[in-house]
Fold this protein.
Amino acid sequence: MQAVKAVKQNYRPTEEILSLLEDFRCMVNDCVRIGLKENLTSMKSLSMKAYHQLSAYDAPTYYRLTAISRAAGILRNYRKELKRNRSARVPYVTRLSLTDCYGFRVIHRLVRLPVRKGEYVFIVLNDHTLRTMSGRTPRSLTLTANGLSICLSKETAEIEPVGAIGIDRNLDNVTTADSDGSILRHDLGRATEVKARSRETKRHFKRNDVRIRRVVYGKYGRIQRNRVAWLLHNVSASIVKRAKEKRFGIVMENIEGIRRLYRKGNGQGTTYRARLNSWSFYELQRQIEYKARWEGVPVSYVAARGTSVNCSICGSRTTKYPNGRRTLHCPRCDISIDRDVNAARNILAKGGVRFTPDGPPEVCTEAMKGNETTTPILRVDGGKVTPG
């Protein structure tokens, strides 16, 4: 199995690099314009029309291929958006960036990047980038006005799981339940606080200037994303590390269409909708997935329906307590259980592990989705819930 991840670092661009980034941006926009004008739907047809027209730029020819590939992705996303929203804005690239899969080379501590035929610029790599790249194969390079990202790959043997970890993602926490019967809760309240503070700061900005507002909003947006990404990185790294040590697979909910629940006009308050729409559930999923693949840990997905409200022991419908606590009561089992813990156990059960009220662990021969062979997974003693 081939695993892929990227390592990033900052750098100081030279005038030659900035000129190259500007040329690449214009090349992508030319490809987008041609694709819209000719109504092209595939990368092959876009290449046939645009490749020779890009010869006007004094840049190496292999940048034409990556520019066409970038434009094809932009056009694909535009058509998807156009199906959902007929007033979708025509795409136009404004940020400086460049993607290279063919011409760059890593030489000791330097990245050599061609700018013209026989002419190169060099970027110094820091110690963190060098350590991460050690023994890995560089696949592609992405350059922005102040950042460099190198995509790496390696061959990884997927482990044969002896159990699983069910992950329930929530706005303020991530709760996990594993085949050993352990329950762990990772607090994400700090991430919610960072997002709320960023919204409050932008709300108090009163200057009626679109250009300045865009700059200020972009600044606080970057600060928010960086802080939240760091918090999510710690949580995802901890989960994957535990899964690798215990030889467990990872099971998550397949969350789709969640944003439609919190649209304007649904009868919900502005603050409530803002909180829920800022939920970084997919970013956490993305981080867990690529880190697990890098370590050879299998990841599977189950349907999200009923994971929070159905009892993780008997499967019957639970009821909420009237005081607003995140605690559920099962009238059939006559037990009380935390809602997040119940959801994590249900996700684990859908992935192949079933909880029982008492008794010794049994063997379940259900395989997690995505495994080619049937893997025995121990059932978990679920009798540790709080009695009602």
Observations:
- Residues 210-246 form the longest helix (37 residues).
